[in-house]
Amino acid sequence: MTASLRERWTSGRSLRFRVTALVLLVVALALVVIGVAVDLSLDAQLRRDQQSRLDDRAARAGLLVASGTTGASLVDAVDGQGIRAVLLDASGRRVVGPTDDPGLPGRPPRDGHGPPGRASRDLARVVGVPDGTRLVLTVEPGENVAVLARLRVVMIGVGALGLGAVAVALLAVVRVALRPLDDMTVLANDIAAGDRGRRLHPERTDTELGRTAAAFDGMLDALETAQLRAEDAAAEARSSEARTRRFLSDAAHELRTPVTGVQTLAESLVRHPDADLARRERIATTLVRETRRAGALVADMLELARIEDGAPLDRREVDLAELAAAEAERTRLLAPALTVLVAGPPTRVLGDPSRIAQVLANLLENARRHGPADGTVRLEVGTDGAQAVLDVVDEGPGIPAADRERVFDRLVRLDDARTRDAGGAGLGLPIARALARAHGGDLRVVENEPGARLRLTLPAAR
């Protein structure tokens, strides 16, 4: 039953209406309680006043009786001003006094005001007279009723006016107090329309609505953060899928030539089982070379994929100049006719020594392939602010300005620089740049004449 009443009360009614109605109901109940209390208090006070006047009039009557006043003179002397006097004989019959019965002791008054018994006895006084008669003093019937009736009319009028004033004040106060809720509604509609950067920013958070507004802002921040994370995750998933597809496409494209070569050589061995030994040896040698080429290609592509997916780095402080010198010595052993020079002071960087060495090896291999066999390759180590810098300079044909970014795309070969047979698979520079960026640095081609200059930058150790 209570739940049903609550449901009917809240159904279809706004919070502003419910708050105003409840407060008005409480105020009305308070006014009723106050009115009843005032009515009862005034009634009691009027009765006390009547009893006091009766006592005073009875004392006066006693003095008059003591002075010898009796009969009509006694009645006229004490009758009036809300007090009625009646002289009764020993049998209770009226001797002198008003003809209308004001209500004698032990009987209720005619107008029915006040309960019989003790209440009516409290509002009557009896004074004995020496001639055997009794003087009965009572209050005017209906005297208190008229006063209380006027008071009730005044209280009802004042209460109605007060309720009206309270209702008007409540509407204004509730409108101001619930304005944050209206702001939340407007904000929610704006966010639904696409303006997701708006917030309430309450001035005070130590109130109920302030805490609600702060919680609302926190919820929006959490939702926006979750949405950004979801969008980042979706973008990362799309990027990963694109890398996977590109890897498969590149692998299929690049493996087609060595696989076709292996297939052709294998078919030649099958079709000519009686070929001379020298030819069979040439075919087998070429078959091994093509197989190694395919294996190296697959290894490079897998390496690039691991780097792009965020392979872990064993970071530590290393000397970039020392790593450059070690890689230069290795290149001299692989190409004795090539001159490799290293210049620059010791430069500490924070990185994975093996990965940085791999970058340098790829850059030196690129320089060796592009330059003359008996040329010179220079490694220049230095610093630029908070970055360590290493330039690899060769004496080759250089890289045109239009191709200085394209050379870092996977499986790209510049037609005038090298052929497929003379060069690698086109993954050395992409792998080197990916490793440099994984360290927080970069690899790019800078202006240089003649030859090419590739600049590696890494964060310097602090």
Automatic annotation (TrEMBL):
<dbReference type="InterPro" id="IPR050428">
    <property type="entry name" value="TCS_sensor_his_kinase"/>
</dbReference>
<dbReference type="InterPro" id="IPR003660">
    <property type="entry name" value="HAMP_dom"/>
</dbReference>
<keyword id="KW-0902">Two-component regulatory system</keyword>
<dbReference type="InterPro" id="IPR036097">
    <property type="entry name" value="HisK_dim/P_sf"/>
</dbReference>
<dbReference type="InterPro" id="IPR005467">
    <property type="entry name" value="His_kinase_dom"/>
</dbReference>
<dbReference type="Pfam" id="PF00672">
    <property type="entry name" value="HAMP"/>
</dbReference>
<dbReference type="InterPro" id="IPR003594">
    <property type="entry name" value="HATPase_dom"/>
</dbReference>
<feature type="domain" description="HAMP">
    <location>
        <begin position="175"/>
        <end position="228"/>
    </location>
</feature>
<dbReference type="GO" id="GO:0000155">
    <property type="term" value="F:phosphorelay sensor kinase activity"/>
</dbReference>
<keyword id="KW-0418">Kinase</keyword>
<dbReference type="GO" id="GO:0005886">
    <property type="term" value="C:plasma membrane"/>
</dbReference>
<feature type="transmembrane region" description="Helical">
    <location>
        <begin position="21"/>
        <end position="42"/>
    </location>
</feature>
<feature type="compositionally biased region" description="Basic and acidic residues">
    <location>
        <begin position="108"/>
        <end position="121"/>
    </location>
</feature>
<dbReference type="InterPro" id="IPR003661">
    <property type="entry name" value="HisK_dim/P_dom"/>
</dbReference>
<keyword id="KW-0808">Transferase</keyword>
<dbReference type="InterPro" id="IPR004358">
    <property type="entry name" value="Sig_transdc_His_kin-like_C"/>
</dbReference>
<keyword id="KW-0812">Transmembrane</keyword>
<dbReference type="Pfam" id="PF00512">
    <property type="entry name" value="HisKA"/>
</dbReference>
<keyword id="KW-0597">Phosphoprotein</keyword>
<feature type="region of interest" description="Disordered">
    <location>
        <begin position="94"/>
        <end position="121"/>
    </location>
</feature>
<dbReference type="Pfam" id="PF02518">
    <property type="entry name" value="HATPase_c"/>
</dbReference>
<keyword id="KW-0472">Membrane</keyword>
<dbReference type="InterPro" id="IPR036890">
    <property type="entry name" value="HATPase_C_sf"/>
</dbReference>
<protein>
    <recommendedName>
        <fullName>histidine kinase</fullName>
        <ecNumber>2.7.13.3</ecNumber>
    </recommendedName>
</protein>
<feature type="domain" description="Histidine kinase">
    <location>
        <begin position="250"/>
        <end position="462"/>
    </location>
</feature>
<keyword id="KW-1133">Transmembrane helix</keyword>
<feature type="transmembrane region" description="Helical">
    <location>
        <begin position="153"/>
        <end position="174"/>
    </location>
</feature>
